[in-house]
Write a structure and sequence with these properties.
192 residues; alpha/beta; Rossmann fold; 7-stranded mixed sheet
Length: 192
């Protein structure tokens, strides 16, 4: 995770300075509910947006420099979010439960071996009936720059036991590169 901590020394291409439009849409459509955990929250734009709407939000990221920036933003904007440095593969250490977990660009950084560990980690904090919303790079994004591409089959394989996939639909990541957005999958997955 040193790569990510050093990336936040500047402004990484995924840190767009506002919430991702896919998460704005989810909130507007009423899909986000209850207590929210933003896993891999970066500098906190999605978490801060949801907290501004009145949700109780926690944000966790392994990069201390990202959490430092997130806390500064929360203070400047006078928005309350509990930002913590932590490991997404060990969410049980939070000793807390959530109704909704959002993931903007975290799942696609995990190796094949880490994915089932992450799913188990998620299940330790997501209440039964709670939903996990994940935005990850799609295999339809051309080129090889950036993170690993993910297929729908890989998502389904990771969440095939103890989960119900509500949908996996085409989505888009906004980046600081300008031009077209990056092709992504937006998934809604319920913890059984």
């Amino acid at each position: 995770m040193d790569f990510f901590d050093s990336a936040y020394g500047g402004i990484p291409p995924w840190d767009i300075g506002h919430p991702q439009k896919e998460f704005i849409r989810l909130a507007e459509e009423g899909e986000i509910s209850g207590r929210v955990l933003d896993v891999g929250c970066g500098t906190g734009e999605n978490a801060l947006y949801l907290a501004h709407l009145g949700f109780e939000v926690w944000g966790i990221d392994a990069a201390p420099s990202a959490i430092k920036k997130a806390r500064e933003k929360a203070k400047e904007r006078r928005v309350k979010v509990n930002f913590l440095v932590g490991d997404a593969l060990r969410l049980q250490s939070l000793q807390n439960k959530f109704d909704t977990v959002i993931d903007c660009g975290l799942f696609h950084v995990f190796t094949d071996e880490e994915r089932p560990i992450f799913a188990a980690s998620l299940s330790s904090v997501l209440l039964p009936g709670g939903r996990y919303f994940m935005l990850c790079f799609s295999e339809h994004e051309p080129g090889s720059y950036g993170p690993r591409r993910v297929t729908q089959a890989e998502i389904r394989a990771t969440f095939n036991k103890g989960w119900k996939i509500n949908y996996i639909r085409e989505g888009e990541f906004e980046t600081r590169f300008g031009g077209e957005d990056v092709k992504a999958w937006l998934s809604s997955i319920t913890h059984l």
